[in-house]
Structures are given as C-alpha cells and as structure tokens.
Amino acid sequence: MSTFEAFGLSPEILNNLRSQGIVQPTPVQEAALPPLLAGEDVIAQAQTGTGKTLAFLLPIMERIQPQKAHPQALVIMPTRELAIQVTAEARKLAAGKPGIHILAAYGGQDVERQLRKLEGGSQLVIGTPGRLLDHMRRGSLALGGVTMLVLDEADQMLHMGFLQEVEEILHAIPRRRQSMLFSATMPDGIRRLAKNYMNAPRDIRISSDSDIPLDNIRQLVVECTDRTKQDALIAMIERDRPYLAVIFCRTKRRAKTLNEALQSKGYASDELHGDLSQAKREQVMRAFRSAKLQLLVATDVAARGIDVEGVTHVYNYDIPQDVEYYIHRIGRTGRAGGKGLAVTFVAPKDLPELRDIERGISQRIKRQRYEASGFAEREKPGEEAAAKSGRRAGERGDGRPKKGGAASRAGKSGGRAAGGGRAEGRRGEERAGGGRREGRSAGGRGGRQDSRPQGRSGSPGGRGRSGGRRGGRQR
Q: What stretches of 432-458 show up as alpha helix (H) in DSSP?
C-alpha cells in the first residue's frame, strides 16, 4: 500500500493528516486520489466506512484558492447528519490552509445565519438538495464559479427521491467542472445521471470482498415471532452488554414505540428519525458519540452516514428491505479495524427478505432461535435437519405392509417422541420422507384396520401422520 506522500499532496495537507494520525490511504483513497488530483471525473463505488470522504475532500483542499471568496466546490449529500459529519471532517483539513471558509447548508438550521456566512464568502459549500435549492431561489447562492462537484451517497439520494432536485442544481453549475460521484451501489438512475452530467469518468469499484468487512463483523439471525421480538432484543442486549448499539426500525412510529419501551426498562436510549427537530437530532448524536447513550433507535434515512467510533453492535429490529440497506446498516459497526456484531431479528413472514439478503452477500448467516428459556442454536436449516431425520426414519422401516393397529401404535410412539406439539408433529411428517404422502401410504390413521398396500416407508410413515394429529390434540 502506498502512502499519502506518494500522491504529491502539499506539505500543509500532509502535516495535517499526520497530526490526525492518518498515515496510510484506504483502498478507495488509493484508487481515487491519483485521477482526482489530476482533475479527472470519477465514479467510485464503495461502501460507507471505507474512507470516501477523505478521497474527495483532499483534492478539493488542494485546489481551492483561498483568495477567491466565491463557492468553488460543492458537495451534495442526502441527509443532514451526513452533511454535519462531512463538514466536521472538512474543517479539520481546512485548519492547515488559512483563508478557506466552509458553509454547511441543510434543513433545520437557521437560514439567516447561513445567509450571513454566504455573504462573507465560502469557498466550499456542503449541503442537502432541498436547502441548496432554497438558497439558489433566494439568490443567496450563486454556483457559476463552482469547478468541483461531489455527489456523495448518490444511491441514497435516488432512494429518497432527490434526483430531480439534484439535476436542477447541476444545471446551475458550469459544464466545465470536475465531477466526483461516490456511491455504495450503482442503480440505473445513478448511471444515467453519470452519463448525462459527467465527462468521460474514471470508473472505480472497490472489490466486493471489501464491501462487507466480514472479518470484523459477526453476523447472526435470531428467529422469533412479532410478539416475542421485543423480548428477544432485550434478552440479547442483556446477554451481550453492548458498549454502543444502533437499533434499526423500518418506520418512525416503530422507532418511537421501541425507544419508549427501552427507556421504560431503564436503558440509556434515544431515537433518531425524521420527525425530530434538527436541534434534537444534533443533541441525540452528541450524546451517542460521547457514550451518554448506550442505544440509538433509528430509521434507515436518519442513520445514513452515521460514523461513530465504538459502535459494537447493530440490531436489525425490523429486517432491511433489501441487501443494500442491510450492508449499510451492518456497516455502522466493525469500523476502523474494530470488531462488531450485527443481529437481525426474523419472524416467519420475513424469511423471503432474509433469503434475498443471504443471496446478495453470498453467505448463509448463522441462526439462533429465541425461546422463553433463552437462545437455542440453529446450525442448520430446519428443512435440512428434517430431511436428515426423514432419511434415518425411512431406513428404519422394513417396507412391508402393516395393519392399521400396528401403524397406530407406531403413530402414538411417534407422537410421544415428537413432544406432543403441533410443530413437532409436522416435523414427524417430514421425517417420514417429505410430507403427508408417505404418512398416508403407511396407513397411519389411528387404530383403524387397513389392508391396503403400504408405502415404502412402512411404519415410520404412519408415525409421522399420527404423531402430527395427536400432537395437535394435546396442544
């Protein structure tokens, strides 16, 4: 791996990086910095937490001219939290170059204060689409002098419906500019945007092996029901005692309800979602960063771009809607070489989404089952275990026809072995060779005599059928 000195950065920038303890570039920085410093357009696809922010801020800081007081670089991103975070990083870098002024333009902040900063001259503007358009329409933000443009988390801007606003902003920027597009994924809408507004961009993709830091993040699925999900979460928190944890919910209402439940049980938790005021959101993030909060209950949009050191656990209270959201969520932990645990709570109705996620990451996630007595390991899928038992059961049968009475006795025995439960009875059917067909062929209708030919599984088939019915009655 190369060093930052190899890129020909100015001594001021290099000294600044050393003072922050940044000595070696990440893979995305190593790949993107040479073309960006040469003035080329770049499309960089890499997951959050891989160092993209520094990859675009370093070229900007190298090329900004402090003596010119108009906006020269514009960074557009989807959420306020991300804008705040990137602004903080930019100010650290700008400390080594006097005369550079930075404006953070996002909703929920005092517009008049932003206007005063613009009047004083800001060379770098970092903002969200809505607030940037607001300033443009007021006439307080002129983009005619912008020579560097960054679209950060471009795929999320597409998901959030910002594409039209982004295009309106792009029309106000000179065509002769350097454009940098950073995204975790490349949906069709983003590729069209790049084709229409970028000039022969260099395409950089950090290999999928680096997308999910599997070495640093242990992934786990906890099987439960909707009714027991909250109990399962609390049991997991009590068992693992996370230092800092982000708990993801799919809606603002569910995040609010879950946070209230956690607070009522004495946990140091708070919520982060779009219904909060900007002041409240900033207050929550300050408390979480300083570890005054242990648990942050958040929606996907609000948590986009959260980069907090020390997050040890991510809990997917609601399963993500697709693999992209899953990757973004679990990427909140295991950062900067740390270790993390990502737990996804899955009810039966969530199994299709779980299968999609596992296909997307080319990995089967280890399972545990939550029960009132605690967590039980599920090393293998239930279907595989049942099939294996079914093969053993089939091997025990001698294949000869049996009378109904014998089948009934075998069925009772199977019902007792199954533990008397409906679910166990169903597994008994599966062990008989894959379902009711073998059970019927075994003549397992209780004590009735039946002289018809039996199936290949013989007595074990009857065991599955009778065990299933008997288990249901006992329950």
A: 436-441
Cβ atoms of 246 and 306 closer than 8 Å: yes
Measured CA to CA, the distance from residue 324 to residue 375 in angstroms comes to 28
Residues of the chain with pLDDT under 70: 1, 48-49, 109-110, 117, 119-120, 207-215, 302-305, 336-337, 378-475
- Token representation of residue 429: 């059917």
Every domain range in the chain assigned CATH 3.40.50.300: 4-210, 217-378
Q: How far apart are CA 72 and CA 63, in angstroms?
A: 9
Q: Which residue has the tokens 């030919």?
A: 453
Is-contact 179 108, C-beta < 8 A? Answer: no
Coil, strand or helix at 402? coil
Q: How open is the CA angle 346-312-245, to the nearest 5 degrees?
A: 60
Cβ of 136: how many Cβ atoms within 10 Å? 15
Q: Report the C-alpha gap between 237 and 265 in whole angstroms.
A: 12
Distance CA 409, CA 228 (A): 37
Cα gap 124→101, rounded to integer Å = 7
List, for residues 288-335, the tens digit of each pLDDT value. 989 999 999 999 876 666 778 889 999 999 999 888 788 878 888 877
pLDDT at 455: 38
What is 50-99 written as a DSSP string? SSHHHHHHHHHHHH--TT--S--EEEE-S-HHHHHHHHHHHHHHHTTSTT
pTM: 0.59
Helices 163-171 and 188-197, packing angle to 10 deg: 0
State which H helix or E strand residue 258 sits in: helix 252-264
- Residue that the structure tokens 């709570």 belong to: 345
Q: What class, spelled out in words, does domain 217-378 have in CATH?
A: alpha beta
Length of the chain: 475
Instruction: Copy the structure tokens of residue 197.
Output: 């507004």
Could you report the per-residue pLDDT of 32-83, keeping only the tens digit for each?
999 999 999 999 988 766 789 999 999 999 999 999 989 999 999 988 888 8
Report the C-alpha gap between 418 and 424 in whole angstroms: 5
Q: In what order do the strands lie in the sheet with 178-183?
A: 102-105, 124-127, 73-76, 148-151, 178-183, 42-45, 202-205
At residue 22, the 3 state secondary structure works out as: coil
Q: 4-210, what's its fold?
A: Rossmann fold (3.40.50)
Dist. CA 246–CA 294, nearest whole Å: 9
